[in-house]
Amino acid sequence: MSAGTSTSTSSSADTEARVPFLSVRDLKVHFSTEDGVVKAVDGLSFGLERGRTLGIVGESGSGKSVTNLAILGLHDRERTALDGEVLLDGRELLTAAERDLEALRGNTMSMIFQDALASLSPYHTVGAQIAETYRKHTGASRREARARAVEMLRRVGIPQPDMRVGDYPHQFSGGMRQRAMIAMALVCDPELLIADEPTTALDVTVQAQIMDLLRDLQQEFGTAIIFITHDLGVIANLADDVLVMYGGRCVEKGGRAEVLGVPRHPYTLGLLGSMPSLDGPVDVPLSPIPGTPPSLLAPPPGCRFHPRCAFAEKVRDALCSTRRPLLEPVDGHGTACHLTAGQRREYFADYRAARVN
Questions:
Q1: Count of CB atoms within 10 A of residue 306's CB?
Q2: Mean pLDDT across the stretch 99-125?
Q3: Where are the domains of the chain?
Q4: I need a surface site. Which of 13, 138, 248, 336 has the fewest CB within 10 A?
Protein backbone atom coordinates (compact mmCIF):
# COMPACT_ATOMS: atom_id res chain seq x y z
CA MET A 1 0.00 0.00 0.00
CA SER A 2 2.75 2.39 0.94
CA ALA A 3 4.67 1.53 -2.24
CA GLY A 4 1.58 2.27 -4.30
CA THR A 5 1.07 5.53 -2.46
CA SER A 6 4.71 6.46 -3.02
CA THR A 7 4.44 5.76 -6.75
CA SER A 8 1.24 7.78 -6.99
CA THR A 9 2.76 10.67 -5.11
CA SER A 10 5.90 10.57 -7.26
CA SER A 11 3.81 10.53 -10.45
CA SER A 12 1.77 13.47 -9.19
CA ALA A 13 4.93 15.40 -8.33
CA ASP A 14 6.38 14.72 -11.78
CA THR A 15 3.18 15.97 -13.39
CA GLU A 16 3.24 19.14 -11.32
CA ALA A 17 6.91 19.69 -12.19
CA ARG A 18 6.03 19.67 -15.89
CA VAL A 19 3.37 22.36 -15.52
CA PRO A 20 4.91 25.60 -16.83
CA PHE A 21 5.09 28.58 -14.49
CA LEU A 22 3.56 30.73 -17.24
CA SER A 23 1.04 29.15 -19.58
CA VAL A 24 -0.49 31.02 -22.55
CA ARG A 25 -3.21 29.15 -24.42
CA ASP A 26 -4.89 30.28 -27.63
CA LEU A 27 -4.40 33.96 -26.78
CA LYS A 28 -6.22 36.45 -29.00
CA VAL A 29 -5.77 40.22 -28.75
CA HIS A 30 -7.98 42.20 -31.13
CA PHE A 31 -8.32 45.99 -31.35
CA SER A 32 -11.35 47.78 -32.75
CA THR A 33 -10.47 50.71 -35.00
CA GLU A 34 -12.32 52.96 -37.43
CA ASP A 35 -11.00 50.80 -40.27
CA GLY A 36 -11.97 47.48 -38.71
CA VAL A 37 -10.67 44.91 -36.24
CA VAL A 38 -6.90 44.52 -35.93
CA LYS A 39 -6.04 40.92 -35.09
CA ALA A 40 -2.76 41.77 -33.39
CA VAL A 41 -2.43 38.33 -31.76
CA ASP A 42 -4.53 35.53 -33.18
CA GLY A 43 -4.32 32.21 -31.38
CA LEU A 44 -0.94 32.09 -29.61
CA SER A 45 0.10 29.34 -27.19
CA PHE A 46 3.34 28.74 -25.27
CA GLY A 47 4.69 27.87 -21.85
CA LEU A 48 7.64 29.06 -19.76
CA GLU A 49 9.26 27.35 -16.81
CA ARG A 50 11.00 28.98 -13.87
CA GLY A 51 14.66 29.77 -14.42
CA ARG A 52 14.43 29.65 -18.21
CA THR A 53 14.51 32.34 -20.89
CA LEU A 54 12.10 32.38 -23.81
CA GLY A 55 13.17 34.54 -26.74
CA ILE A 56 10.30 35.90 -28.83
CA VAL A 57 11.45 37.10 -32.25
CA GLY A 58 9.82 38.56 -35.33
CA GLU A 59 9.53 41.70 -37.41
CA SER A 60 7.87 44.85 -36.10
CA GLY A 61 4.12 44.37 -35.97
CA SER A 62 4.28 40.60 -35.48
CA GLY A 63 2.56 40.79 -32.08
CA LYS A 64 5.51 40.38 -29.72
CA SER A 65 4.93 43.39 -27.47
CA VAL A 66 1.13 43.12 -27.67
CA THR A 67 1.38 39.58 -26.29
CA ASN A 68 3.37 40.64 -23.27
CA LEU A 69 1.24 43.68 -22.53
CA ALA A 70 -1.71 41.26 -22.42
CA ILE A 71 0.14 39.08 -19.91
CA LEU A 72 0.71 42.14 -17.72
CA GLY A 73 -2.87 43.35 -18.14
CA LEU A 74 -1.81 46.70 -19.60
CA HIS A 75 -4.27 46.89 -22.51
CA ASP A 76 -7.28 49.20 -22.37
CA ARG A 77 -10.04 46.68 -21.70
CA GLU A 78 -12.72 48.94 -23.13
CA ARG A 79 -11.02 49.01 -26.54
CA THR A 80 -9.37 45.59 -26.57
CA ALA A 81 -10.97 42.16 -27.01
CA LEU A 82 -9.00 39.54 -25.12
CA ASP A 83 -9.66 35.82 -25.40
CA GLY A 84 -7.87 32.64 -24.42
CA GLU A 85 -6.10 31.83 -21.19
CA VAL A 86 -3.03 33.19 -19.42
CA LEU A 87 -2.05 31.35 -16.25
CA LEU A 88 0.76 32.57 -14.00
CA ASP A 89 1.53 29.88 -11.43
CA GLY A 90 -2.06 28.72 -11.82
CA ARG A 91 -3.65 32.18 -11.54
CA GLU A 92 -5.74 33.40 -14.46
CA LEU A 93 -4.63 36.87 -15.58
CA LEU A 94 -6.91 37.80 -18.50
CA THR A 95 -10.00 37.92 -16.31
CA ALA A 96 -8.31 39.13 -13.12
CA ALA A 97 -9.52 42.33 -11.48
CA GLU A 98 -7.34 45.41 -11.96
CA ARG A 99 -6.52 45.61 -8.23
CA ASP A 100 -5.21 42.03 -8.36
CA LEU A 101 -3.09 42.80 -11.42
CA GLU A 102 -1.67 45.90 -9.72
CA ALA A 103 -0.59 43.73 -6.81
CA LEU A 104 1.18 41.36 -9.21
CA ARG A 105 2.81 43.97 -11.47
CA GLY A 106 6.21 45.01 -10.18
CA ASN A 107 6.03 42.31 -7.55
CA THR A 108 5.41 38.83 -8.99
CA MET A 109 5.84 39.92 -12.61
CA SER A 110 7.72 42.90 -13.97
CA MET A 111 8.80 44.46 -17.27
CA ILE A 112 11.85 46.22 -18.66
CA PHE A 113 10.85 48.62 -21.42
CA GLN A 114 12.89 49.45 -24.50
CA ASP A 115 13.32 53.19 -23.92
CA ALA A 116 14.57 53.72 -20.39
CA LEU A 117 14.67 57.52 -20.72
CA ALA A 118 10.99 57.63 -21.70
CA SER A 119 10.04 55.11 -19.01
CA LEU A 120 11.71 56.91 -16.12
CA SER A 121 10.19 60.09 -14.73
CA PRO A 122 12.46 63.11 -15.35
CA TYR A 123 11.05 64.83 -12.22
CA HIS A 124 12.18 62.26 -9.66
CA THR A 125 15.55 60.80 -8.82
CA VAL A 126 16.37 57.30 -9.99
CA GLY A 127 16.64 56.11 -6.41
CA ALA A 128 13.25 57.57 -5.47
CA GLN A 129 11.57 55.73 -8.35
CA ILE A 130 13.13 52.40 -7.39
CA ALA A 131 12.32 52.98 -3.73
CA GLU A 132 8.68 53.87 -4.48
CA THR A 133 8.18 50.57 -6.29
CA TYR A 134 9.60 48.71 -3.31
CA ARG A 135 7.50 50.61 -0.77
CA LYS A 136 4.28 50.08 -2.72
CA HIS A 137 4.60 46.30 -2.66
CA THR A 138 6.31 45.70 0.68
CA GLY A 139 5.17 48.53 2.94
CA ALA A 140 8.79 49.32 3.81
CA SER A 141 9.76 52.62 5.40
CA ARG A 142 11.42 55.37 3.37
CA ARG A 143 14.79 54.57 4.93
CA GLU A 144 14.45 50.86 4.19
CA ALA A 145 13.32 51.54 0.63
CA ARG A 146 16.24 53.88 -0.04
CA ALA A 147 18.68 51.28 1.29
CA ARG A 148 17.06 48.71 -0.99
CA ALA A 149 17.43 51.09 -3.96
CA VAL A 150 21.14 51.51 -3.22
CA GLU A 151 21.52 47.74 -2.92
CA MET A 152 19.80 47.14 -6.29
CA LEU A 153 21.86 49.81 -8.06
CA ARG A 154 24.99 48.14 -6.71
CA ARG A 155 23.72 44.74 -7.84
CA VAL A 156 23.19 45.89 -11.43
CA GLY A 157 26.66 47.39 -11.61
CA ILE A 158 26.09 51.13 -11.06
CA PRO A 159 29.33 52.61 -9.63
CA GLN A 160 29.09 54.52 -6.33
CA PRO A 161 25.40 53.63 -5.91
CA ASP A 162 25.10 55.43 -2.56
CA MET A 163 25.86 58.67 -4.44
CA ARG A 164 24.15 57.96 -7.77
CA VAL A 165 20.90 57.04 -6.01
CA GLY A 166 20.17 60.76 -5.80
CA ASP A 167 20.77 61.47 -9.50
CA TYR A 168 18.07 62.15 -12.08
CA PRO A 169 17.68 59.99 -15.23
CA HIS A 170 19.30 62.59 -17.49
CA GLN A 171 22.46 62.34 -15.39
CA PHE A 172 22.82 58.64 -16.28
CA SER A 173 24.26 57.32 -19.54
CA GLY A 174 22.04 55.15 -21.77
CA GLY A 175 23.54 51.95 -20.43
CA MET A 176 23.23 53.12 -16.83
CA ARG A 177 19.58 54.09 -17.35
CA GLN A 178 18.88 50.60 -18.70
CA ARG A 179 20.60 49.10 -15.67
CA ALA A 180 18.47 51.34 -13.44
CA MET A 181 15.34 50.05 -15.21
CA ILE A 182 16.49 46.49 -14.55
CA ALA A 183 17.07 47.40 -10.89
CA MET A 184 13.53 48.78 -10.66
CA ALA A 185 12.10 45.70 -12.36
CA LEU A 186 13.92 43.35 -9.99
CA VAL A 187 13.60 45.32 -6.74
CA CYS A 188 10.77 43.07 -5.50
CA ASP A 189 12.38 39.84 -6.75
CA PRO A 190 9.75 39.08 -9.43
CA GLU A 191 9.24 35.52 -10.57
CA LEU A 192 8.53 36.58 -14.16
CA LEU A 193 10.55 39.26 -15.97
CA ILE A 194 9.55 40.55 -19.42
CA ALA A 195 12.28 42.41 -21.30
CA ASP A 196 10.94 44.29 -24.33
CA GLU A 197 13.96 44.92 -26.59
CA PRO A 198 15.96 46.41 -23.70
CA THR A 199 19.25 46.49 -25.63
CA THR A 200 18.06 47.93 -28.97
CA ALA A 201 19.34 51.49 -28.46
CA LEU A 202 22.63 50.44 -26.85
CA ASP A 203 26.01 49.81 -28.43
CA VAL A 204 27.21 46.21 -28.68
CA THR A 205 29.50 46.43 -25.67
CA VAL A 206 26.70 47.64 -23.38
CA GLN A 207 24.34 45.09 -24.95
CA ALA A 208 26.72 42.31 -23.94
CA GLN A 209 26.96 43.71 -20.41
CA ILE A 210 23.16 43.86 -20.06
CA MET A 211 22.77 40.28 -21.28
CA ASP A 212 25.45 39.08 -18.87
CA LEU A 213 23.66 40.93 -16.10
CA LEU A 214 20.32 39.28 -16.91
CA ARG A 215 21.95 35.85 -16.95
CA ASP A 216 23.62 36.46 -13.58
CA LEU A 217 20.44 37.78 -11.99
CA GLN A 218 18.43 34.86 -13.37
CA GLN A 219 20.85 32.41 -11.80
CA GLU A 220 20.59 34.27 -8.51
CA PHE A 221 16.80 34.61 -8.38
CA GLY A 222 15.61 31.72 -10.58
CA THR A 223 13.52 34.19 -12.59
CA ALA A 224 11.55 33.17 -15.67
CA ILE A 225 12.41 35.63 -18.47
CA ILE A 226 10.66 36.56 -21.71
CA PHE A 227 13.07 38.43 -23.96
CA ILE A 228 11.48 40.24 -26.92
CA THR A 229 13.69 41.21 -29.83
CA HIS A 230 14.09 41.26 -33.59
CA ASP A 231 17.79 40.42 -33.24
CA LEU A 232 18.51 36.71 -33.61
CA GLY A 233 22.10 37.33 -32.50
CA VAL A 234 20.87 38.42 -29.08
CA ILE A 235 18.58 35.39 -28.88
CA ALA A 236 21.45 33.05 -29.77
CA ASN A 237 23.39 34.33 -26.76
CA LEU A 238 20.60 34.52 -24.19
CA ALA A 239 17.55 32.33 -24.78
CA ASP A 240 16.94 28.71 -23.81
CA ASP A 241 13.90 28.45 -26.08
CA VAL A 242 12.77 30.46 -29.10
CA LEU A 243 9.30 31.42 -30.33
CA VAL A 244 9.09 32.95 -33.81
CA MET A 245 6.06 35.17 -34.47
CA TYR A 246 4.66 36.36 -37.78
CA GLY A 247 1.40 38.17 -38.40
CA GLY A 248 0.15 37.67 -34.85
CA ARG A 249 0.79 33.92 -34.83
CA CYS A 250 3.55 31.55 -33.79
CA VAL A 251 5.16 29.94 -36.84
CA GLU A 252 7.94 28.05 -35.07
CA LYS A 253 9.06 27.29 -31.53
CA GLY A 254 11.52 25.01 -29.81
CA GLY A 255 14.95 24.92 -28.23
CA ARG A 256 17.41 27.60 -29.27
CA ALA A 257 19.84 25.21 -30.95
CA GLU A 258 17.10 23.51 -32.95
CA VAL A 259 15.26 26.64 -34.11
CA LEU A 260 18.38 28.61 -35.02
CA GLY A 261 20.47 25.67 -36.17
CA VAL A 262 17.88 23.64 -38.07
CA PRO A 263 14.94 25.97 -38.81
CA ARG A 264 11.76 24.33 -40.10
CA HIS A 265 9.74 27.35 -41.19
CA PRO A 266 10.59 29.43 -44.28
CA TYR A 267 10.13 32.64 -42.28
CA THR A 268 12.72 31.57 -39.69
CA LEU A 269 15.04 30.58 -42.52
CA GLY A 270 14.49 34.01 -44.07
CA LEU A 271 15.27 35.80 -40.81
CA LEU A 272 18.52 33.87 -40.50
CA GLY A 273 19.37 34.59 -44.13
CA SER A 274 18.92 38.32 -43.63
CA MET A 275 21.48 38.59 -40.84
CA PRO A 276 25.28 38.45 -41.22
CA SER A 277 27.15 35.39 -39.98
CA LEU A 278 30.36 35.58 -37.96
CA ASP A 279 31.23 31.96 -38.73
CA GLY A 280 30.74 31.74 -42.50
CA PRO A 281 32.44 33.40 -45.48
CA VAL A 282 32.54 37.19 -45.28
CA ASP A 283 31.47 37.65 -48.90
CA VAL A 284 28.12 35.84 -48.62
CA PRO A 285 25.39 38.35 -49.51
CA LEU A 286 22.46 38.95 -47.18
CA SER A 287 19.07 37.75 -48.43
CA PRO A 288 16.30 40.06 -47.20
CA ILE A 289 12.79 38.63 -47.12
CA PRO A 290 10.87 40.10 -50.07
CA GLY A 291 7.62 41.99 -49.55
CA THR A 292 6.18 43.48 -46.38
CA PRO A 293 4.46 42.08 -43.27
CA PRO A 294 0.71 41.49 -43.66
CA SER A 295 -2.01 43.94 -42.70
CA LEU A 296 -3.62 42.63 -39.54
CA LEU A 297 -6.85 44.39 -40.53
CA ALA A 298 -7.20 41.99 -43.48
CA PRO A 299 -4.58 39.26 -43.10
CA PRO A 300 -4.12 36.81 -45.98
CA PRO A 301 -5.97 33.49 -45.73
CA GLY A 302 -4.19 30.24 -44.97
CA CYS A 303 -0.58 30.72 -43.89
CA ARG A 304 -0.04 34.43 -43.34
CA PHE A 305 3.49 34.18 -44.67
CA HIS A 306 2.57 32.57 -47.99
CA PRO A 307 2.56 35.82 -50.08
CA ARG A 308 6.26 36.28 -49.20
CA CYS A 309 7.27 32.61 -49.08
CA ALA A 310 9.70 31.28 -51.70
CA PHE A 311 8.39 27.74 -51.26
CA ALA A 312 4.59 28.19 -51.18
CA GLU A 313 4.13 27.25 -54.83
CA LYS A 314 5.79 23.90 -54.18
CA VAL A 315 3.03 22.77 -51.79
CA ARG A 316 0.24 20.73 -53.35
CA ASP A 317 -3.35 21.90 -53.74
CA ALA A 318 -2.47 25.51 -52.90
CA LEU A 319 -2.77 24.66 -49.20
CA CYS A 320 -0.63 27.62 -48.17
CA SER A 321 -3.15 30.14 -49.48
CA THR A 322 -6.27 28.32 -48.29
CA ARG A 323 -5.65 26.41 -45.07
CA ARG A 324 -4.05 27.63 -41.85
CA PRO A 325 -1.15 25.30 -40.93
CA LEU A 326 -1.22 23.94 -37.39
CA LEU A 327 1.81 24.07 -35.13
CA GLU A 328 2.86 20.43 -34.86
CA PRO A 329 5.72 19.81 -32.42
CA VAL A 330 8.11 16.93 -33.08
CA ASP A 331 10.56 16.24 -30.25
CA GLY A 332 9.73 19.64 -28.75
CA HIS A 333 10.36 21.53 -32.01
CA GLY A 334 7.17 22.75 -33.69
CA THR A 335 6.47 24.54 -36.94
CA ALA A 336 3.28 25.79 -38.59
CA CYS A 337 4.06 24.99 -42.22
CA HIS A 338 2.56 22.80 -44.97
CA LEU A 339 5.99 21.72 -46.27
CA THR A 340 6.82 18.10 -45.54
CA ALA A 341 10.03 17.18 -43.73
CA GLY A 342 11.49 15.92 -46.99
CA GLN A 343 10.60 19.11 -48.84
CA ARG A 344 12.24 21.20 -46.12
CA ARG A 345 15.46 19.22 -46.32
CA GLU A 346 15.58 19.57 -50.11
CA TYR A 347 14.44 23.16 -50.58
CA PHE A 348 16.24 24.63 -47.56
CA ALA A 349 19.51 22.99 -48.64
CA ASP A 350 19.08 24.49 -52.11
CA TYR A 351 18.37 27.88 -50.56
CA ARG A 352 21.56 27.78 -48.48
CA ALA A 353 23.62 26.61 -51.43
CA ALA A 354 22.32 29.46 -53.56
CA ARG A 355 23.37 31.97 -50.89
CA VAL A 356 26.93 30.63 -50.76
CA ASN A 357 27.28 30.43 -54.55
A1: 23
A2: 89
A3: 117-189, 272-356
A4: 13
